[in-house]
């Protein structure tokens, strides 16, 4: 068992870096969509471009999930974090100066590429600096991510009205600029010989994960989490408008409510796992609230709509649940990076198809029933994956049982 150290002793810069990185990663994603209408008044943003902007995050995350473990082995985690943040700053700043939709798409691709790298690095960085405080620090950064999900949509339009949409987009580069400082300090602090040993002595392990049920189970749970989140952020306002008669403002407020549920959930889930090992219970809860929330929208959409959305929003517990498992189901740093890349690249690749599928189902049927049933099925599908992921083991131990030494 890892000895417990004082949280702040020798790790204050790491805490600051993790919080700022987490906030920068999520606010970069959540700050664009509320401003599309204002951007469209200055230059045309066709529906196909909006669709690309909606599908771009999970697609970019999938690509960089594959690339990041190799980049991390070459450059080390601290330097790669600095590089990702610099690219993020460039992309966020460029979004405020674009003159057409092509420029917007290009700048946004830079942003999502950098976020994809940061997403993969975050769990192993937490494990590297806080192996004795995995539950607490996962709570800290997942809660920061939850806050950074609903703050930008709340302030984006008022800031744009007071200044301009360009400033309202570019302003989110400021937290990323600040985040560069602690990660640069951490990169400088890590000695060259230590970094060399870390990079050179670790065997490549990503390919081994394809043969491990534990890795696939965590991937399935993550795919369910990402599918529910990205499909809801793309389609929930439209669904609520069509089936519950919600106005545009009401639908936007209900989407903010859906996102806000993730904040208290992120506060409690990692602790429930780290202290009480309630992994199976949490997967059961996620499946149940998914079915109940969507069932309420199907049966009585205009009655207590906020209640059904709130219940459905509790499925957000899957995100901090999987993030915590990424730290707990790997014994070594190399395996943690590989597992994070494996799970997020495949999980996001799967999730990228569902928002498109949801729209196609609606177009084919003329209603939202089939689409909502698909989302309920995704929530239920997380349960069997979770039962496997709940086993107290690591990918190294599972490999050793099946194939010999790691």
UniProtKB/TrEMBL annotation:
<feature type="transmembrane region" description="Helical">
    <location>
        <begin position="306"/>
        <end position="326"/>
    </location>
</feature>
<dbReference type="InterPro" id="IPR011701">
    <property type="entry name" value="MFS"/>
</dbReference>
<dbReference type="InterPro" id="IPR020846">
    <property type="entry name" value="MFS_dom"/>
</dbReference>
<dbReference type="InterPro" id="IPR052524">
    <property type="entry name" value="MFS_Cyanate_Porter"/>
</dbReference>
<feature type="transmembrane region" description="Helical">
    <location>
        <begin position="167"/>
        <end position="188"/>
    </location>
</feature>
<feature type="transmembrane region" description="Helical">
    <location>
        <begin position="80"/>
        <end position="98"/>
    </location>
</feature>
<feature type="domain" description="Major facilitator superfamily (MFS) profile">
    <location>
        <begin position="12"/>
        <end position="394"/>
    </location>
</feature>
<dbReference type="Pfam" id="PF07690">
    <property type="entry name" value="MFS_1"/>
</dbReference>
<keyword id="KW-0472">Membrane</keyword>
<feature type="transmembrane region" description="Helical">
    <location>
        <begin position="368"/>
        <end position="390"/>
    </location>
</feature>
<dbReference type="InterPro" id="IPR036259">
    <property type="entry name" value="MFS_trans_sf"/>
</dbReference>
<feature type="transmembrane region" description="Helical">
    <location>
        <begin position="134"/>
        <end position="155"/>
    </location>
</feature>
<keyword id="KW-1133">Transmembrane helix</keyword>
<feature type="transmembrane region" description="Helical">
    <location>
        <begin position="209"/>
        <end position="233"/>
    </location>
</feature>
<keyword id="KW-0812">Transmembrane</keyword>
<feature type="transmembrane region" description="Helical">
    <location>
        <begin position="253"/>
        <end position="274"/>
    </location>
</feature>
<protein>
    <submittedName>
        <fullName>MFS transporter</fullName>
    </submittedName>
</protein>
<feature type="transmembrane region" description="Helical">
    <location>
        <begin position="338"/>
        <end position="362"/>
    </location>
</feature>
<feature type="transmembrane region" description="Helical">
    <location>
        <begin position="46"/>
        <end position="68"/>
    </location>
</feature>
<feature type="transmembrane region" description="Helical">
    <location>
        <begin position="104"/>
        <end position="122"/>
    </location>
</feature>
<feature type="transmembrane region" description="Helical">
    <location>
        <begin position="281"/>
        <end position="300"/>
    </location>
</feature>
């Amino acid at each position: 068992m890892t000895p417990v150290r004082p949280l702040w002793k020798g790790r204050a810069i790491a805490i600051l870096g993790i919080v700022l990185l987490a906030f920068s990663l999520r606010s970069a994603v959540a700050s664009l969509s509320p401003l599309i209408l204002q951007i469209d008044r200055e230059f045309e943003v066709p529906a196909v471009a909006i669709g690309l902007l909606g599908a771009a995050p999970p697609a970019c995350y999938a690509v960089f999930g594959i690339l990041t473990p190799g980049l991390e082995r070459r450059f080390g985690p601290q330097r790669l974090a600095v590089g990702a943040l610099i690219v993020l700053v460039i992309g966020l700043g460029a979004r405020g100066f674009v003159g057409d939709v092509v420029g917007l798409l290009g700048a946004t691709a830079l942003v999502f590429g950098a976020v994809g790298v940061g997403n993969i690095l975050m769990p192993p960085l937490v494990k590297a600096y806080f192996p004795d405080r995995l539950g607490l620090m996962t709570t800290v950064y997942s809660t920061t991510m939850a806050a950074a999900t609903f703050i930008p949509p709340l302030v984006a339009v008022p800031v744009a009205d007071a200044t301009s949409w360009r400033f309202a987009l570019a302003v989110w580069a400021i937290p990323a600029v600040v985040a560069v400082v602690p990660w640069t300090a951490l990169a400088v602090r890590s000695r060259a010989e230590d970094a060399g040993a870390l990079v050179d002595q670790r065997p490549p392990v990503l390919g081994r994960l394809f043969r491990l049920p534990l890795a696939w189970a965590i991937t399935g749970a993550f795919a369910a989490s990402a599918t529910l989140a990205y499909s809801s952020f793309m389609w929930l306002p439209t669904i609520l408008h069509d089936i519950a008669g919600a106005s545009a403002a009401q639908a936007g407020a209900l989407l903010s409510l859906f996102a806000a549920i993730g904040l208290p959930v992120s506060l409690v889930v990692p602790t429930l796992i780290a202290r009480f090992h309630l992994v199976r219970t949490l997967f059961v809860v996620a499946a149940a609230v998914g079915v109940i929330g969507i069932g309420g929208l199907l049966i009585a959409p205009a009655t207590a709509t906020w209640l059904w959305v709130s219940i459905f929003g509790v499925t957000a517990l899957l995100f901090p649940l999987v993030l915590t498992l990424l730290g707990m189901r790997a014994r070594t740093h190399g395996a943690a990076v590989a597992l994070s890349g494996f799970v997020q690249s495949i999980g996001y690749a799967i999730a990228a198809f569902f928002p498109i599928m949801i729209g196609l189902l609606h177009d084919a049927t003329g209603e939202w029933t089939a689409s909502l049933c698909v989302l309920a099925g995704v929530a239920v599908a997380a349960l069997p994956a979770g039962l496997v992921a709940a086993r107290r083991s690591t990918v190294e131990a599972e490999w050793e049982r099946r194939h010999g030494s790691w």
